[in-house]
Amino acid sequence: PSVKFMAGQRVRTKKSRSIHRLIGKNKRYGRFDQNHSPLGAASNDHGGFAIGNLTNSYYEEVGLSSFRRGLKLDAVQDVVLLQDEIRISGTADMWWFAHTKAAIDLSEDGLTARLTLNEKTLIAKIRNGKGAVFSVMKAEPLPTSPVVPDQAVNDGVRKLVIHIPDCGNLDLAVTFASDVRENEGYSYEFSSLDQWK
Description:
The chain is built from 1 helix and 13 strands, in the order βββββββββββββα. With 197 residues, it is mostly beta strands.
């Protein structure tokens, strides 16, 4: 199934958006003139990864000292890992969005989401992250979002969401795999982005 990661709302331009939205106490959050810098990448016959620095995507008053995101493809196990490491002074309202046209079914504990589209299934699973659970929302702006002229309409799209109010330091890891691979079992152990090779 098609899954599009973004924070904020889709507009007519295709400017990159961060997957997270961190909202400070004064309701300010990510800038739209984001400057993401790569920190490292590598690939081989078994897969590959890339790590980016998203710290400068947020206003200083959010209190963010570091925000790094890693994306890893395990070609052997056919699994994609998305990992975010956030370091913040104090707390902020954290939102994580994945936009999709797939039907979304959540497990009772909220840690697994089954996305089905065109008779194909993708399993999203929260592997790490204190207080993180999935929910589903309409693909509409948050009440605290700025009004964007000519906002695109997200017909047939919903958001797979992780929302952590009063979020402090966070190591969030989400995997995406086919239902076949998930049922066969995927061996996961958290490792920090510094340990990725």
